[in-house]
Design a protein that fits this description.
- By secondary structure, the protein is mainly beta.
- The protein is 7% helix and 43% strand.
- The strands form 2 sheets. A 5-stranded mixed sheet has the order 1-5-10-9-6, with no helix packed on it. Strands 3-4-2-7-8 form a 5-stranded antiparallel sheet, with no helix packed on it.
- Strand 9 and strand 10 form a beta hairpin.
- The radius of gyration is 19 Å and the shape is globular.
């Protein structure tokens, strides 16, 4: 197990977990308090509006005591290229932090733990007291859902039935 740490600049109350720099913001699901999933990757919602937060990325297996963190959320995220990285929406990828989707393209379970999000809500501060722990685990293919906005390959029998119906 290894933990990597870096400050991440937050703008408009979020930082990203983006795949190959793509930000499909129009697909963001804002219903969660901590994670907003997108058709690829996700946004992590912060307490502050603008400033730096501390982000830790944990690779490998670990057991955390739940008491260390005030909030926790999980979500499924899609990585079409296998290049999920922590990114500032303004400054781009945080190269001090590792690629999160080390197993390549696919579905991942994202876990975000946070503390300090309620200390300075919507504030603009140079350094906030917010800390986030990010971990990702590959979801085995048989149970992985289809990516948002895509469909499975067409069934040839279904296509033939459709053509017959259209011809009358």
């Amino acid at each position: 197990m290894a933990t990597h740490r870096a400050p991440v600049f937050v703008n408009e109350g979020a930082y990203g977990i983006f795949d190959h720099g793509e930000v499909p913001i129009e697909s963001a699901d804002w219903s969660g308090d901590l994670i907003a999933t997108m058709s690829a990757g996700a946004l992590v919602r912060t307490g502050i509006n603008t400033g730096n937060v501390r982000v830790e990325v944990r690779t490998g297996t670990s057991e955390d005591s739940a008491g260390e963190w005030e909030e926790q959320a999980t979500a499924l995220v899609w990585s079409p290229t296998g290049s999920l990285r922590i990114e500032s929406v303004v400054d781009g990828p945080q190269l001090e932090l590792p690629v999160l989707s080390a197993s390549g393209p696919g579905w991942y379970e994202l876990e975000v733990k946070a503390r300090g999000r309620r200390e300075a809500p919507d504030a603009s501060v140079l350094e906030s007291g917010e800390t986030y722990l990010i971990s990702l685990r590959l979801v085995p293919e048989p149970t992985a859902p289809m990516p948002a906005g895509s469909s499975a390959a067409p069934d040839p029998d279904e296509e033939a039935r459709r053509r017959r119906l259209l011809q009358g």
